[in-house]
Amino acid sequence: MSWLDIKVWIKEQKQFVEGSYVDNVYVVDSLIVLKLRTRVSPSYVWLIIEPGRRISITRTEMKFVSSGGSGRQQLWRRMVRDCLISDIEQLDLERVVFFKLRCGSTERKLVVELLPRGVVAVLDQNNKIVLTTESRSMKDRTVKPGVLYRPPPLRKPFTEMNVDELRQSIKQGKDVVRGLIKGWSLPPEIAETVIQLCNVDPSADSASISDEDLECLRRQAEDLVNTAVTNPEPCTVYSNDEPIGFYPFVPPKYISARIEKFEKFNDAVDTYFQKMLEHVLSKRVAQELEAEMKKLEKSVEDIDRRIADAKKDLEELKKRIEVLESKYVELEELHRCVIHVVKERGWSELRVCSREGISITRVEPKHG
Q1: Do the strands 258-261 and 235-239 form a parallel or antiparallel pair, or are they unpaired?
Q2: Torsions phi, psi of 299, nearest 5?
Q3: Does the pTM of the predicted model rise above 0.90?
């Protein structure tokens, strides 16, 4: 999720989630799932938190393998279960979300980082980390239990920059589109759209852009962000039936693609990840079937090879039987001669038993 996705999601789901109680907590790898009792829904809903990727609500019943003995899961339940979610807020235009929790007489925060290498952490009243999905030591901060939580370094929102700051920031990218994404922190779909609206070459050198184009890009970006937040058009985009993205508006570059529209942005997010899971699972099943087919093909090849070897052995055996049948009398005479000569003269004289068409070429006394 981009910071814009988060902004749209919070505006849409804030009233629904605030006032909810955490009925239970499930930890699956890096995934944190909160089972919520809301004020406005008679049935449970599930808040899915995946650091670095998404926050979303699903009403689809989720079942988990019992892991009551998991120490990690028990820690999360001790910190979050039975807490009231009193507020949700986003940190500026960043991919960081705070869920304020009221746990009896204790105040806590659940911080969710949706940026690369992000974590989910529980903070105490003094913003000290008491629990985290993963401890990390980075150049600008440390995330681990016992230390004060520090968010990633904040950057000035593009909406607050003057022309000079906009120019300096956009230079962080080699070209205009990368400058908008890296320097202005615009989501890629916003950057591509405003470039199109302002008729700016996306591959142009970011240092050579005019003040007029800078102002146009900022104005269009602000308008697009405001429209997406106040009047979103949530959608999921597909390519060959595979979901490739979810957006709070329809990006112009996907106008001819297969687009599924939704009333709620959360539903677009939830559908995207459900479809992605289905696609991954179906792909995995197909790969397993293909591997099984290869095993069966190899087994068939082995059987065919054994049959061929058996046929070859059978042909050889038939030839030997034919020889025995055609030379039976001569072989019988040879056998009698061998017994007589060995008894009377010894093994060294066996060559006297050779007959026309049948000769003794090798003698092995040890084998009789």
Answers
A1: antiparallel
A2: -65, -45
A3: no
Q: Within 10 A of 137 (CB to CB), how many other CB atoms are there?
A: 8
What are the structure tokens assigned to 166, written together?
A: 């906009």
User: From the CB of residue 339, how many other CB atoms can be counted at a distance below 10 Å?
Assistant: 11
Look at residues 225, 188, 253, 254 and name the one whose alpha carbon lies nearest to residue 179: 188
Q: What confidence category does residue 244 fall into, taking pLDDT thresholds of 50, 70 and 90?
A: very high
- CA–CA distance, 63 with 190 (Å, rounded to integer): 37
Which residue is associated with the tokens 């990633």? 152
Which structure tokens are listed for 171? 């230079």
Tell me if 26 sits within 8 A of 73, measured CB to CB. yes
Q: Helix, strand, coil: what percent of the chain each, to 5?
A: 45, 20, 30
Place of tokens 């892991």: 67
Tens digit of each residue's pLDDT (9 = 90 or more) over 12-50 = 999 999 999 999 999 887 789 999 998 887 789 999 999
Contact (Cβ atoms closer than 8 angstroms) between residue 44 and residue 37: yes
What gap in Å lies between CA 332 and CA 261, rounded to an integer? 94
